[in-house]
Recover the amino acids of this structure.
C-alpha cells in the first residue's frame, strides 16, 4: 500500500492515462477524486474503481476554469478530509506546424495544457499547505523536452509545464510541497489512436524508440505513483522521462 491514507485529485481522470493512474492509486490505498469534462466515462471509471474495492469519486472539472478547480479541491477536502496529491494530467493534442496553427488552436491548447496546470496548482496549494505538504505531479511530455516536426502549440504548452513545475517546486518546498514533471514518449491511448492508426507512422515511432515498442498507460502510471508517494520524498523540481529511451539519443 504505497499510498495508504492519501487523498489524490487527478485531472482528466475519466479515461486514458488518468484513469489508469486512478485505478493504480486506489489499489495502493489512496482515496481518489477524478475530475474530467467527460461525465459518462468519468462515472464509469468511478464505478469500476468502487466496485473493485477502491474509493473513488468523480466530479465534473473543466481545467480551464478557476471556479471549477476551486470546487474540485473543495470536494476532495469535504469528502475525504484533506488533499495530499494533485496529478495535473488533463490535456489535448493538436498536430500542426507553425504556419498551419491558428491563433484559436494555440489559445485552446495553451488554455487546457498550460493554464489548466497553473489553475490546478493554484487551487491545490492552500489545501496541500493545510495538510502539512503533498505532491504535485504534472504530466508534460517528451514534447516538453525536444522540438517536434508536427506539433507547435502542443510542444509550447508542454515546455511551459516543465518550467512551471520547477518554479512551483522552488516556491513551495518549505511548505513540504513537492512538484515534479513526467515526460512520456508515445503512449497508446485514445489521444494517440488517430495518428497511430497510420501504420507507417506507427512503425516510425517504434523504430525511433530504442526499447523497440510504444508505451502503455501503465508504464507512465507507475512513474506517477512513485512521484506521488513518500518514496520520492527527496525529489522536487525534477523531470521523470518515460519514453523507452527516445530522447536519450
Ligand atoms: P486522453 O485519453 O485524451 O485523456 C485526457 C483526458 O483529459 C480526456 O478525458 C480529456 O477529455 C480530458 N480533458 C481535455 N480537456 C479537458 C478539460 N478542459 N478539463 C478536464 N479534462 C479535460 O489522453 P492521454 O493520452 O491519457 O493523455 C494524458 C496526458 O498525458 C495529457 O496531458 C497528454 O498531453 C499527456 N501525454 C500523452 C502522451 C501520449 O502519447 N498519449 C504522451 C505524452 C504526454 P476529452 O477527450 O474531452 O478531450
Amino acid at each position: 500500500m504505497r499510498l495508504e491514507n492519501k487523498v489524490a485529485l487527478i485531472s482528466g481522470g475519466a479515461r486514458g492515462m488518468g484513469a489508469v493512474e486512478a485505478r493504480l492509486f486506489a489499489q495502493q490505498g489512496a482515496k481518489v477524486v477524478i475530475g474530467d469534462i467527460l461525465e459518462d466515462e468519468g462515472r464509469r471509471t468511478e464505478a469500476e474503481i468502487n466496485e473493485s474495492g477502491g474509493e473513488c469519486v468523480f466530479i465534473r472539472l473543466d481545467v480551464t476554469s478557476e471556479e471549477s478547480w476551486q470546487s474540485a479541491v473543495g470536494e476532495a477536502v469535504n469528502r475525504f478530509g484533506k488533499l495530499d496529491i494533485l496529478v495535473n494530467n488533463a490535456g489535448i493534442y493538436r498536430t500542426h506546424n507553425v504556419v498551419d496553427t491558428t491563433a484559436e488552436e494555440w489559445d485552446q491548447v495553451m488554455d487546457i495544457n498550460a493554464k489548466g496546470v497553473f489553475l490546478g496548482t493554484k487551487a491545490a496549494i492552500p489545501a496541500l499547505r493545510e495538510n502539512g505538504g503533498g505532491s504535485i505531479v504534472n504530466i508534460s511530455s517528451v514534447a516538453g523536452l525536444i522540438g517536434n516536426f508536427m506539433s507547435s502549440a502542443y510542444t509550447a504548452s508542454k515546455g511551459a509545464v516543465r518550467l512551471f513545475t520547477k518554479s512551483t517546486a522552488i516556491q513551495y518546498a518549505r511548505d513540504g510541497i513537492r512538484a515534479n514533471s513526467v515526460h512520456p514518449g508515445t503512449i497508446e491511448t485514445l489521444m494517440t489512436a488517430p495518428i497511430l492508426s497510420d501504420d507507417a507512422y506507427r512503425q516510425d515511432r517504434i523504430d525511433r524508440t530504442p526499447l523497440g515498442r510504444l508505451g502503455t498507460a501503465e508504464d507512465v502510471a507507475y512513474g506517477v505513483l512513485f512521484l506521488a508517494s513518500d518514496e520520492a520524498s527527496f525529489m522536487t523540481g525534477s523531470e521523470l522521462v518515460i519514453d523507452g529511451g527516445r530522447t536519450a539519443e
